[in-house]
C-alpha cells in the first residue's frame, strides 16, 4: 500500500503531470463539442503536422534548460529550406543539397552561440538579430515569392512518407530525435553540464565545466533542429515559403514552458515538451474543427501557459513540503 | 598519522591592492589533521590570504609550500589538484539539481553500453550515499533537490564532496554565518568528522565563538599581519578577542 502511495506521490511530483492532464482535458472538450475532432482523418493530420514544429521545440528546450533563448528558430525554419532549393537550382544533387542545408543551419547556430558567449550580449538580443537577418535574407533572395521544391520520391518518403495508418516518417524522426535528446539530457555527462550551466553557471565553472562550450553546442543544436523541421515541412508542402515558420520562435518557447521548462534555465524535461507540443497543435487544430475564429489560437495558448505554469509551481511547492516532512 | 607534519606553509606573503598593502609579510602554517581558526576583524586580510592559498589570487611576494614542496597556483584548479578546496559562503551547488548529480558534477562516472557512453546513475547514487554518510550527513538523500536543503545541509554536501574527492585541506569562509545554532553545530560536526579522516580545515571567521569549540589552533590577523598564533590550550576566548580588537599587543608566534 505504501509503495503504491509513494508511486502516486512521485508521479504527482513529475512536472509533466500538469500538462498531460491539460492535454487529456482538451481532447475530451473538443471531442464533446465536435466528434469529428477524433475522426481517423483528423487524427492523421495531427500526427503528421505536429512533428515538424515539435522537432524545433526539442532544440529550444535544451537551450532554455542551458539558460539561453533562441528567437531565430522561426526564421531559420524558413531560411534553410530556401537555401536547399537554391542549391538544387544551382545543380547540386538533392541529397547533397539537404545535407549542405543542415550544415549551414549548424553554422548559423554556431555563429549565434559564439557571438552570444564571446560578447556577453544576452541571447535574447543576438538571436533577435538572427530572427531579422535570416528572415530578411529569405525575403530578399526570393522577392517574397514561394519557391517550389522538387525532390525525388525516395527523399520525400524518407522525410515525410506514410509507413502505416497513423504512422508517418515525420513521427519517426520526432520520436527518434526526442529519444536522442532525452539520452543527452538525462543520461550523459553533457546533460548534467546543461542543467548545471543553466541552473548556476558559476557552480558549473567552478567544477570545471566549460559553460561557454556547452552553450555554443546548444545554440548549434537549436538551429540544426530548426533547419531540420523546416526541411521536413517544405518537403511535405513541396515548396518553401518566405514567411515559413513566422512566429514559430514564440510558439516553441511557449511549448517548452507549458511542458515545464523554466524560463530561467536549469530545469525542464524532453517528455514535457513532447506532450506540450501535441497540446499546442491540438488546440490549434481543435479550434478550427469547432469553427472558432482562427484568432482565438493565441488567446488559448496564452491561457494554457498561465494555467500550466501555475500548476507547475503549485506542484513544486507541494513537493518541497512533502520532502521536508518525510 | 603524523599530526606534526607540516601540510601548508605560506612564507612572508605580501599582497597589494593598488596602493593598499593588505598582507604585510604573513607567515601561516597548517599541520596535518588540524583545524585552524583564522580570525580577525573585517578587512584584516583573512579572505585575501585564503584566496591566495586557494589559487584565486597570486601573492605579490612570498612563497607557498605544500608538504614541503614549493607550489605556484595559477587558478583554483591548480590548488584543487594539490587537494586544497575552498568552500565559499555561497556554497558551490546547483540549486535545481539533485544532491548526487551535484556531488559528481564535472567528474561524472560513465559506463559503456556497447560503444555508447552512459551516465552511471547507480554508481552516482551509491557513491553519493557513501560520501554523505562518511561525514555523518544523515537525512540527506542523493535524490533530493539541493534547493530543498537547509543552509547547513548544503555546507555538509559541499564538505562531503571535497572529502570524497580526497581533499587534504578545506578552506571554509564563514561557513556558520546565517545559520541557526543547531545548524552551526551540525557544520562543526562535519568539519570534525573530516578531521577524523585526516583532513585539515581552515575556518575563516570574524567571530571567535564560532570556531573556538573545534579549533586546535587560532591565528589572529590584524591589518594584514599575524598578531597571534596560539594553541587553543594556551589561550582564552577573552585573549583572542582582545587581539582581534587590538587591545593587546601581538603575541609571539607558536614555535618561533
What's the SSE pattern of chain B?
EEEHEEHEHEEHHEHEHEEH
Mean pLDDT of chain B: 89
Q: How is the quaternary structure best described?
A: heterodimer
- As residue ranges, the low-confidence spans of chain A are 322-326
Q: Which structural category do the helix and sheet elements of chain A fall into? A: mainly alpha
Provide the spatial order of strands within the biggest beta sheet of chain B: 6-9-10-3-11-12
Quantity of strands of chain B, as a count: 12
- Indicate the radius of gyration of chain B in whole angstroms: 19 Å
Helix content of chain A: over 70%
Number of domains of chain A: 1
The share of residues in helices of chain B is 25-40%
**Treating each run of at least 4 consecutive H or I residues as one helix, how many helices of chain B?**
8
Chain pair forming the biggest interface: A-B, 25 and 23 residues
Class by SSE composition of chain B: alpha/beta
Number of separate helices of chain A: 14
How many beta strands in the DSSP annotation of chain A? 4
State the gist of this model.
The complex is a heterodimer of chains A (326) and B (256). Chain A has 326 residues and is an all-alpha fold.
Structure description:
The complex is a heterodimer of chains A (326) and B (256). Chain A has 326 residues and is mainly alpha-helical. Chain A has helices spanning 2-13, 16-33, 40-65, 73-89, 94-119, 123-142, 153-160, 169-187, 189-199, 201-206, 211-237, 248-258, 270-289, 296-325; strands spanning 147-148, 162-164, 167-168, 239-240. In chain A, helix 12 (248-258) packs parallel to helix 14 (296-325). Chain A starts with a helix and ends with a helix. Chain B has a domain at 6-92 and 167-245: P-loop containing nucleotide triphosphate hydrolases (Rossmann fold, 3-Layer(aba) Sandwich). In chain B, helix 4 packs across helix 5 and helix 5 packs parallel to helix 6. In chain B, a hairpin with a 2-residue loop joins strand 4 and strand 5. Chain B is 30% helix and 29% strand. Chain B starts with 5 loop residues before the first strand and ends in an 11-residue tail after the last helix. The longest helix of chain B has 16 residues, at 181-196. In chain B, the strands form 3 sheets. A 6-stranded mixed beta sheet of chain B has the order 6-9-10-3-11-12, with helices on both faces. A 4-stranded antiparallel beta sheet of chain B has the order 2-1-4-5, covered by helices on one side. In chain B, strands 7-8 form a two-stranded antiparallel ribbon. Chain B is of the alpha/beta class. Chain A binds chain B through residues 183, 186-189, 191-193, 195-196, 199-200, 202-204, 206-209, 262, 266-267, 320, 323-324, and chain B through 76-77, 92-97, 101, 104-108, 110, 117-119, 121, 144-145, 147-148.
Amino acid at each position: 500500500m505504501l509503495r503504491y502511495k509513494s508511486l502516486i506521490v512521485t508521479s504527482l511530483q513529475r512536472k509533466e503531470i500538469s500538462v498531460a492532464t491539460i492535454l487529456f482535458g482538451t481532447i475530451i472538450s473538443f471531442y464533446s463539442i465536435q466528434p469529428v475532432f477524433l475522426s481517423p482523418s483528423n487524427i492523421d493530420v495531427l500526427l503528421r503536422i505536429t512533428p515538424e514544429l515539435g522537432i524545433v521545440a526539442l532544440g529550444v528546450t535544451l537551450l532554455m534548460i542551458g539558460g539561453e533563448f533562441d528567437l531565430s528558430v522561426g526564421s531559420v525554419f524558413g531560411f534553410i529550406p530556401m537555401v536547399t532549393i537554391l542549391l538544387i537550382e544551382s545543380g547540386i544533387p538533392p541529397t547533397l543539397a539537404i545535407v549542405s542545408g543542415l550544415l549551414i543551419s549548424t553554422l548559423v547556430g554556431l555563429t549565434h552561440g559564439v557571438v552570444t558567449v564571446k560578447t556577453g550580449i544576452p541571447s535574447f538580443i543576438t538571436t533577435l538579430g538572427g530572427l531579422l537577418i535570416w528572415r530578411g535574407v529569405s525575403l530578399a533572395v526570393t522577392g517574397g515569392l514561394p519557391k517550389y521544391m522538387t525532390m525525388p520520391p525516395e527523399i520525400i518518403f524518407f522525410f515525410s512518407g506514410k509507413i502505416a495508418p497513423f504512422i508517418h516518417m515525420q513521427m519517426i524522426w520526432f520520436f527518434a530525435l526526442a529519444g536522442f535528446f532525452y539520452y543527452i539530457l538525462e543520461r550523459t555527462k553533457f546533460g548534467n553540464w546543461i542543467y548545471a550551466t543553466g541552473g548556476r553557471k558559476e557552480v558549473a565553472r567552478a567544477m570545471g565545466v566549460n559553460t561557454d562550450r556547452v552553450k555554443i553546442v546548444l545554440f548549434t543544436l537549436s538551429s540544426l533542429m530548426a533547419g531540420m523541421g523546416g526541411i521536413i515541412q517544405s518537403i511535405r508542402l513541396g515548396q518553401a515559403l518566405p514567411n515559413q515558420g513566422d512566429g514559430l520562435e514564440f510558439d516553441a518557447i511557449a511549448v517548452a514552458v507549458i511542458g515545464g521548462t523554466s524560463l530561467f534555465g536549469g530545469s525542464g524535461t524532453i517528455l514535457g515538451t513532447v506532450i506540450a507540443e501535441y497540446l499546442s497543435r491540438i488546440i490549434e487544430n481543435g479550434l478550427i474543427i469547432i469553427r472558432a475564429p482562427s484568432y482565438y489560437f493565441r488567446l488559448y495558448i496564452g491561457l494554457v501557459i498561465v494555467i500550466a505554469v501555475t500548476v507547475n509551481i503549485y506542484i513544486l511547492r507541494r513537493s518541497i513540503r512533502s520532502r521536508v516532512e518525510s | 598519522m603524523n599530526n606534526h607534519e607540516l601540510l601548508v606553509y605560506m612564507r612572508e606573503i605580501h599582497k597589494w591592492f593598488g596602493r593598499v598593502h593588505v598582507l604585510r609579510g604573513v607567515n601561516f602554517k597548517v599541520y596535518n589533521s588540524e583545524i585552524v581558526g583564522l580570525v580577525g576583524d573585517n578587512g584584516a586580510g583573512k579572505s585575501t590570504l585564503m584566496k591566495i592559498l586557494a589559487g584565486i589570487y597570486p601573492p605579490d611576494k612570498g612563497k607557498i609550500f605544500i608538504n614541503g614542496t614549493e607550489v605556484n597556483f595559477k587558478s583554483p584548479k591548480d590548488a584543487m589538484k594539490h587537494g586544497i578546496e575552498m568552500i565559499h559562503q555561497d556554497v558551490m551547488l546547483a540549486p535545481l539539481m539533485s544532491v548526487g548529480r551535484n556531488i559528481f558534477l564535472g567528474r561524472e562516472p560513465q559506463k559503456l553500453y556497447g560503444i555508447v557512453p552512459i551516465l552511471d546513475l547507480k554508481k552516482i547514487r551509491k557513491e553519493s550515499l557513501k560520501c554523505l554518510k562518511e561525514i555523518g550527513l544523515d537525512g540527506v538523500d542523493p535524490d533530493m533537490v539541493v534547493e530543498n536543503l537547509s543552509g547547513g545541509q548544503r555546507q555538509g554536501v559541499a564538505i562531503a564532496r571535497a572529502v570524497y574527492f580526497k581533499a587534504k585541506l578545506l578552506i571554509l569562509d564563514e561557513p556558520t554565518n546565517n545559520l541557526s545554532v543547531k545548524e552551526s553545530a551540525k557544520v562543526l560536526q562535519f568539519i570534525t568528522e573530516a578531521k577524523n579522516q585526516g583532513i585539515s580545515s581552515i575556518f575563516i571567521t570574524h567571530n571567535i565563538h564560532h570556531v573556538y569549540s573545534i579549533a586546535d589552533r587560532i591565528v589572529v590577523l590584524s591589518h594584514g599581519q599575524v598578531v597571534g598564533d596560539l594553541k587553543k590550550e594556551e589561550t582564552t576566548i577573552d585573549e583572542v578577542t582582545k587581539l582581534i580588537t587590538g587591545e593587546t599587543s601581538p603575541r609571539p608566534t607558536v614555535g618561533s
